[in-house]
Each structure stands twice: as C-alpha cells, then as structure tokens.
Amino acid sequence: MERREFIKNCITGCAWTLLAAGSYVNLNKFTYNLKYYRKEKFRKKQNIRYISNIEIPLSEHCNLNCKYCNHFSNIAEPGFYDFEKFKEDIILLKKVTQKQENLKNITLTGGEPLLNEKISEYIMFLRGQFPETEIELSTNGLFLDKQDNLFYKTVHETNTALIISNYDSDINWNGILKKLNDYDINKFGIYYNTAFIGEKITPMLAEETKITNFYKYNLNIKGTEKIQERFESCFFRYFMNQLKNGKIYPCPVIANVEHLNKKFNVDFKVTQNDYIDLTKVRKFKDILKFLDKPPEFCKYCGKFKESVNWEISSNPDISEWT
C-alpha cells in the first residue's frame, strides 16, 4: 500500500482531533498509526508492546440512526452490555493485558452509550480496574445535558474524557457546557471532519464544526476480496478493536455484523478466526499476534471507503453497506 494512501486513511478515518475545553487533545490514535507505518517495514506488529485503543459498546442501538453506520446501530434491536458480563470481561481484560501501559485507551461507545441507564456504574467499575488507562466516553451528545448529577460526578471523579460526535443534530450546547463547568470537567472534545486543535469550545464554535461527511464501507457479500490487501489498508485494526461479550474483535464491523445479517437475512460469516476469546488468552502477546493476523472476514471488505453526505437513515436499506 502506498504511504500516501495510508496517511489519507489515518487522517480521514482517524480524525480524533479534539477541540479542547481545557488542554485535552488526544492525538494518540493518529500519531500511533503514523509511527506504526514507519516501523512496519522493519518489524511485525507483535513487537509493538501496547494496544492503542479498545472500544466497548455499552448499547447496541442508537437514538440518532446515522446512515452508513459501521456499528450497524441504526438497524440494531435494543440491547445493552449485561453489567455482570461486563464486569467479568473487564476483570479478564485486566488480567490478560497484564500491565496498564499495555492498553493505552478504552472507549465506551455504542450504539449510543447514554441510552444505558447504568452508565455511571460501568464507568466506575472500569476505572477501578484500570486506574491509569485513558478512558473516553463517545456519545452523540443528544442526551448529555439530560444526565443526572451522579453521571457528571462520576465523570469528574474517574477523570473520564467526554467525546461528542458533532453531527448536525439538536445538541443543547449551552446546557452541556454549563454542566461541564459546574462539575469542573475539562477532558472534553468534539469529533468532527475538520481539524481544530486546542481551541476553547463555545456554542458558536460547535455550530461551525458539524460533521457533514460520512464514510460508506462497501461490503462484498460474495466474499471475493483479497484478504491481505484489505487488511493492510484498514485503519480500524489500529485503534478500533472491540471487546464484546468476552471476545476481542479486530474491528466494529465484524463485532456487529450480526445486526446486518438479521435485518436483511444475509450471511456475512464470522468464524473463530475473526476474534479471540479472552478466556483462552494466556498472555498479552497472544492478543498482539491475533491482531497482527488478517481475519477471514476481510474477504467481505470491499474498496476501503467512499465519502458521502451525513444523513439520517429513515428507511435503512442494505445498499448502505454493500
């Protein structure tokens, strides 16, 4: 793969450049991708001794229903990560990662995580097991100003970063910014499709930085793609590994394609080679070796992506993903 194509994928797909309410700007995922590319020719990925980021979906469904969602949340039936299972999986994750520095970042996501009424309990338990790892909560922001005092107190006490995907929706920025100020929360940022770094967020600035573009991931239902080629051009594998029900998946597409299969009666197969079961992991290097190996599912991944206008999916159709 050409270096130019790789960097373009990092910038357009990994635009986790944040508008900082205080001094919080998390460039870890982007800089990690570029650093890894430079070393790719000289050593295999298992020699890199940490995982950049793991996503954990606290809800399957979403209240916004974005067209082309790569988590398939706009067609998912309502569901949540069972809290007892979550605790079991986090304890296992702590055990297999062995050292805090082996896992740089954990992102609580969805669907829309704020649909989960126990959100504060999930955050508290996670921080208790990972006291030094960066924790982010990724939300569309629509319910953020409606959260109770316990939520904001938990976010402050656990030093959790709040990340809003700034879609063109009815976000109450005045209410949100007041809550952040009241609870002294300074780890806060916006995910959008241009790059402002380190600026103070205001309602006006938020309105000027709406997400207008989205990316359509073209799945090949025949499964005839070149696995190695698709694997090497994919940025998901660097920073969007996903923990779900005791298994680590290389990307959210594999972890959530069950929703696409069920909705449209298709059969994108997920095999045992497409995930690693935490109960079978003996040491941290086993996870790195797994993530360095192309999953069989890559045979379904068509041309990497195309830019489309962001919009709500009022009547989802399989053509959004194929």
Give the topology, please.
Blueprint: H1 3-13, H2 28-40, E1 54-57, H3 83-97, E2 105-109, H4 119-129, E3 134-139, H5 149-157, E4 161-165, H6 173-182, E5 188-191, H7 203-208, E6 213-216, H8 227-232, H9 236-239, E7 241-244, E8 247-249, H10 252-264, E9 276-277, H11 284-291, E10 306-309
Parallel strand pairs: 1-2, 1-7, 2-3, 3-4, 4-5
Antiparallel strand pairs: 6-10, 7-8, 8-9
| Overall 3D shape | globular
How many helices does DSSP assign? 11
As for the number of domains, it is 1
CATH top-level class: Alpha Beta
- Main sheet properties: 8 strands, mixed
What would you say this structure looks like, in words?
The protein has 322 residues and is of the alpha/beta class. It is built from eleven helices and ten strands. The strands form two sheets. Strands 5-4-3-2-1-7-8-9 form an eight-stranded mixed β-sheet. It has a single domain (3-320), classed as Aldolase class I (TIM Barrel), CATH 3.20.20. Helix 1 runs antiparallel to helix 2 and helix 4 packs parallel to helix 5. Strand 2 (105-109), helix 4 and strand 3 (134-139) form a beta-alpha-beta unit.
Comma- or semicolon-separated keywords:
322 residues, alpha/beta, TIM Barrel, two-stranded antiparallel ribbon, 11 helices, 10 strands, 13% strand
What's the short story on this structure?
The protein is an alpha/beta fold and 322 residues long. The chain has one domain: TIM Barrel (Alpha-Beta Barrel).
